[in-house]
Structure formats: structure tokens, C-alpha cells
Amino acid sequence: MLTVYPQTKTYFEHWKDLSPGSAPVRKHGLTVINGITVDAVKKIYDLNTGLLTLSELHAFTLRVDPANFKILSYCILVVLANMFPDKFTPEVHVAMDKFLAAVARSLSEKYR
After folding, report:
1. Residues near 95 by beta carbon (within 8 Å), at least 6 away in sequence
2. Among 73, 68, 84, residue whose Cα is nearest residue 33
3. Does residue 112 surpass a pLDDT of 80?
4. Which of 87, 73, 79 is nearest to 32 (CA)?
5. 10: burial class by Cβ within 10 Å (0-12, 13-18, 19+)?
6. Would you indicate the residue range of the signal peptide (predicted)?
7. Which burial class, exposed, middle or buried, applies to 106 when counting CB atoms under 10 A from its CB (0-12, 13-18, 19+)?
8. CA of 93: how far to CAs of 7, 76, 96, in Å?
9. Count of CB atoms within 10 A of residue 9's CB?
10. Backbone angles phi, psi at 56, to 5 degrees
11. Spatial distance between the Cα atoms of 108 and 17, rounded to a whole number of angstroms
């Protein structure tokens, strides 16, 4: 995401190394993926409430442009399609796209 969409780097300027595979990038990537695969999946039936703290953090403290949540969703879909081409069927693509869009909407909730 930081390479293809360089405007997203503005939120991480305090990191010394933003290159792909660097320690801070890998650590934050793991945090994001864990947030999606653990937190969001556990709270799938009420994402707005379940991700409220993250929404507030990103809206009020970090001031992340909510458009970046859609960019991240797209990047995750591309990575999944590349890493698992045989398993990333059209049905899986639709399901993941729908889930990630719901996560992005929930993270954007406090911007409204």
C-alpha cells in the first residue's frame, strides 16, 4: 500500500524506514491483519460497535483519511488473489470484498 499509494506514507513519517519488509512496516501490517482476522471476524455481527474504539482512534487521534480504508481493502484483495490464486475464486473474492467493505465502513463511522 505504501508503495502503490505513496500518499498513505504521510501517516507514518515518524518511522525511519518505510521500505517494503522493514520492521515497522511488517509490525504494523501484522497489527492491521490481526485486527481484521481476529477482532473484526469476532465482531462481524456488529462491526460498528466492535470497531468503535479503532474508528475513534483513526478519526480523532490519528486523523486518517477514511478513503485509505478502501485503499487498504483493495490492497488486501490483491495480495490474497496473488498469494492464493487457486483458492481465490470469484465467490471468495465477492465475500472478502463485502467483508472488507463492511470493515472499512465501520472504521469510517466516527467521521460522519
Report:
1. none
2. 73
3. no
4. 73
5. exposed
6. none
7. buried
8. 26, 11, 5
9. 13
10. -65, -45
11. 28
- Greatest CA separation found in the chain? 40
**Which CA distances in Å does 38 have to 32, 67, 98?**
10, 23, 17
For 63, the 3-state DSSP assignment is coil
pLDDT at residue 49 greater than cutoff 90: yes
| Euclidean distance between CA atoms 107 and 112, whole angstroms | 11
Q: Which residues, including other chains, have CB under 8 Å from residue 47's CB and lie 6 or more apart?
A: 40, 102, 103, 105, 106
Name the CATH superfamily, with its identifier, for domain 22-111.
Answer: Globins (1.10.490.10)
pLDDT at residue 34 in the model = 93
Measured in residues, the chain has a length of 112
Residue 19 C-alpha from the chain's centroid = 18
pTM of the model: 0.90
* 111 pLDDT tier (thresholds 50, 70, 90): confident
